[in-house]
């Protein structure tokens, strides 16, 4: 396989990895926002008295919900979000490793291409 073809192929793969990483970082940012929102809700729950009514948004309607059920739902959501963050972080780390390896490969191919161009043909 020619060096030019290998370089083009590696470059395309590198761009694909970078696109995947951008998507993963976007997902991580969204998860951080959800985590923050749910932690805020959990903090607000600590200030409730038994006489306070908690409502849940179901479609366009606010429906009364049991306080304990609401607290349990928020705890479950927090656990889920934290596990998703760990999963996405692992994917980001893997993507960064793949990206770095591909970048090194690109530099090596580019160096070989430059050497081939500067070496006179007999």
Which strand order spans the largest sheet, edge to edge or round the barrel? 1-2
Reading the helices and strands in chain order gives HEEH
Number of helices: 2
- Helix-strand category: mainly alpha
**Low-confidence region ranges:** none
Would you tell me the overall average pLDDT?
94
Q: Main beta sheet: strand number and arrangement?
A: 2 strands, antiparallel
Kindly estimate the percentage of residues that lie in beta strands according to DSSP.
5-15%
Q: Please give the number of β-strands.
A: 2
Distance between the termini: 22 Å
Whole-number radius of gyration?
25 Å
Shape type: rod-shaped
Helical residues, percent: over 70%
Provide the fold topology.
Layout: H1 3-45, E1 54-58, E2 61-65, H2 67-118
Antiparallel strand pairs: 1-2
Summary tags:
122 residues, mainly alpha, two-stranded antiparallel ribbon, 2 helices, 78% helix
Describe the structure.
It contains 2 helices and 2 strands. It has 122 residues and is mainly alpha-helical. Helix 1 packs antiparallel against helix 2. The relative contact order is 0.15. The longest helix has 52 residues, at 67-118. The two termini are 22 Å apart. The radius of gyration is 25 Å and the shape is rod-shaped. It has helices spanning 3-45, 67-118; strands spanning 54-58, 61-65. Helices cover 78% and strands 8% of the residues. The protein has a two-stranded antiparallel sheet with strand order 1-2. The mean pLDDT is 94.
